[in-house]
Amino acid sequence: MKKILLTILLGAASVSVFSQDKPAAAPASTNSGKETRVSLVFSPNMTWNRATSEKGVENETYKTSGVGVRYRTGINVDFHFGQNASFTTGLFYLVKRANFQVNSGTKDTTLGGDYKYNLQYLQVPLTLKMFTNNIADDFKLYFQLGPTLDFKINEKRVEGDVSTLEAKNVFLFFDAGLMAGAGVEWQLGSSTAAFFGLSYNRSLLNGINPLIKYNKIPSNQDPKLVNHLNMKTDFISLDLGVKF
Fold first, then answer.
1. Is residue 18 situated within a structural domain?
2. How many CB atoms lie within 10 A of CB 190?
3. Assigned domain for 162 exists
């Protein structure tokens, strides 16, 4: 009888200890509810241009030249709804590279050579970000898609003959793009996470200012550069950030 009572007491004690040591239920995902999270982001990027030659000066052609390394940095804000989605916006300082070559087949045209610019923008993304459940301890994937609005704050010519093309406002004050990205988010604590990923931003508008004109051009030729050159700027970014 004593053995039976001892066995029962040991069993009850074991259940009690197990119930006390059992970890508390995991807190709700940091992406649940209507939570707002702010991130600091730095994104080095590789930028290039797409150029097409339209109607214009006879025998004059345009092409882009190479790829440049620039960057984007700023603040990301995630407005979470549900456990696996957020509306993601923010404010970024963005530097793009614009490089085009003009090859003229006529002796009368003075616009020619290699033109290279650093373009500085304030960028506002308006994107949807989707999260998976954990793929490993504290790790989850995210996917991001949506438009971006880019407002030019400065342009600087770093190469090209100033005498042949207006020195300022060669590029439009506004650009719009489409962003698509994916990455991994690593939860570091209850309120802090790090993330890294890749994103592609594709420009949707012709970046050349429609009012720009040649400074020197024969009177019998159309003076508007926009009639000749359609150029858009794309880039791929490595996105590195810390979320609070």
1. no
2. 8
3. yes
